[in-house]
Amino acid sequence: MNTFEGQTNGNGMRIGIVCSRFNDFIVEALLNGARRGLSHCGVTDDAIDVAWVPGAFEIPIAAKAMATSGKYDGIVTLGAVIRGETAHFEYVAGPCADSIAAIQLETGMPIGFAVLTVENVEQAVARSGDGAGNKGEEAAIGTIQMIDVLRQIRR
Description:
Blueprint: E1 15-20, H1 24-40, E2 48-53, H2 59-67, E3 74-82, H3 88-107, E4 111-118, H4 121-126, H5 135-154
Parallel strand pairs: 1-2, 1-3, 3-4
């Protein structure tokens, strides 16, 4: 029986990160976490490219451009959709997540998902802080693991 389990050795990997400018004070903290996670995995700063897009709704098209460019081993997506008084939340959060999942399946590119979908700013802050639980860091490490799992399967 073969078992495929992703390791966290990102040496030599190139990673693209797509960040939403909307709620950028949260996204900056997620980006710091993602960079910290990638660094712990051995990914150097010069092997990371960051693309900033206007909002979470635009993340998928930039992620797809990165995924199909041939330049990256994996992508990490970062954003924060905070529920408000209108239905805007539903029109952004679900389509963003669905599109990113579809891009993974279409391209075979691992895409880490840290687009927070929260009820309020306090929840976003709790998921993007400097300590444990930063979803950007978790998504980055998960992306490295998925790259490794897929490489093992494809061998």
